[in-house]
Amino acid sequence: xxxxxxxxxxxxxxxxxxxxxxxxxxxxxxxxxxxxxxxxxxxxxxxxxxxxxxxxxxxxxxxxxxxxxxxxxxxxxxxxxxxxxxxxxxxxxxxxxxxxxxxxxxxxxxxxxxxxxxxxxxxxxxxxxxxxxxxxxxxxxxxxxxxxxxxxxxxxxxxxxxxxxxxxxxxxxxxxxxxxxxxxxxxxxxxxx
Length: 193
Hints:
CATH superfamily of the largest domain: Immunoglobulins
CATH class of the largest domain: Mainly Beta
Shape: rod-shaped
Largest sheet: 4 strands, antiparallel
Strand content: 35-45%
CATH architecture of the largest domain: Sandwich
Strand order of the largest sheet: 1-2-3-4
CATH topology of the largest domain: Immunoglobulin-like
Order of helices and strands: HEEEEEEEHEEEEEE
Helix content: 10-25%
C-alpha cells in the first residue's frame, strides 16, 4: 500500500513539473512516505507552499495552502505614432487617382489622413471623408509639337497623418510627378522637323 502512494506522488510530481515550463515543484515526505510539503516556484501565481499534517492513525488533520503574490501584469505599451513615408508618386496627365493611407504612412494603430495639399499647378486633391485616402486629379499637360518628347512636371504635396487612438501625428511631403503625352509622330514618308 505504501508503494502505491509513493508511485502516485512521484507521478503527480512529474505532472506538476512538466505542466508549465516556468514552474519548479518540490516535494517532501515524512518517514512513513506520506506527502507533507509541496512547494512551487514561478508560474502565474508566484510561489505557493502546501503543508499537510497527519494524526498518529494516518488521517490528514490539516491542509494549509500559502499562496504567493499575484504578479503585476506588464502594461500595454502606448500606441506609437504613425511614420510618414514621403513617397514619390508617378501619374499621367489629366488622370484621376486615389492615394491610399498606406502609401503615405505606416502605423501600428488605426490612423487617418487629416491634411493633404498640392503645390500650385499640381492638380487638385481632397481627403476622403473616412480619412483613408486622397482623391487626386493630375493637371493636364499640353501636348508638345511633332516629335517632341513627353514632358514630366514635378509637384510637392505636404500631408499630415494622425492616429485615431493616441492622437500622435506625422507630417510628410509626397513628390508627385505628372507625365504628359509625347508629341505626335510623323506620317509614313515624313521626317521629324
